[in-house]
Design brief:
75 residues, two-stranded antiparallel sheet
């Protein structure tokens, strides 16, 4: 089974994926885990992946372009 994870913080997943049931499944060849850094697909000089929320509320919203480009590369 192949699992692809798209994240902005790939280094934060090292601990959970290397010290859990997933690690044992990976060692046995049952699961392949591939982590993809969304910032590689970010827009502009700063590789931006988030946008401001619309409607005046607090918070951030993910841009669709980086996610779309990453999923297209995975296909």
């Amino acid at each position: 089974m192949r699992i692809d994870i798209i994240t902005v913080l790939p280094e934060i997943l090292d601990g959970p994926l290397n010290n859990s049931i997933i690690k044992r499944a990976t060692d046995k060849g049952i699961v392949e885990v591939h982590i993809h850094d969304l910032r590689e697909y970010g827009l502009g000089r700063h590789k931006q992946v988030d946008d401001y929320a619309f409607g005046g509320e607090a918070g951030m919203v993910m841009m669709i372009e980086p996610i779309y480009n990453c999923i297209n590369d995975l296909k």
